[in-house]
Amino acid sequence: xxxxxxxxxxxxxxxxxxxxxxxxxxxxxxxxxxxxxxxxxxxxxxxxxxxxxxxxxxxxxxxxxxxxxxxxxxxxxxxxxxxxxxxxxxxxxxxxxxxxxxxxxxxxxxxxxxxxxxxxxx
Length: 122
Fold this sequence. Notes:
elongated; 2 strands; mainly alpha; two-stranded antiparallel ribbon
């Protein structure tokens, strides 16, 4: 099983690191749906929505200025692949932590049931 996990991790890193450079910069389905009824125009070098759409009510997330926001590193579009690799690493770290918590809980349950069985046989 570890060989499969290592292979899966390698493929995930390659996909995140390489394919992120060819990902579309156009809005995804949710963004496109919320922008229906509006047009995007350039005003003083910034994009602005004009018209009547749901997206006009949107506000930036409180982490929008964080170093890994918008699939980049500090806003540098040339580092999109590295941001993808860091995202995959974070996801695997979270998965590893959850698996370790589950294993620890199972070990404690087995130990508790084993000591309970020994106490009953005494």
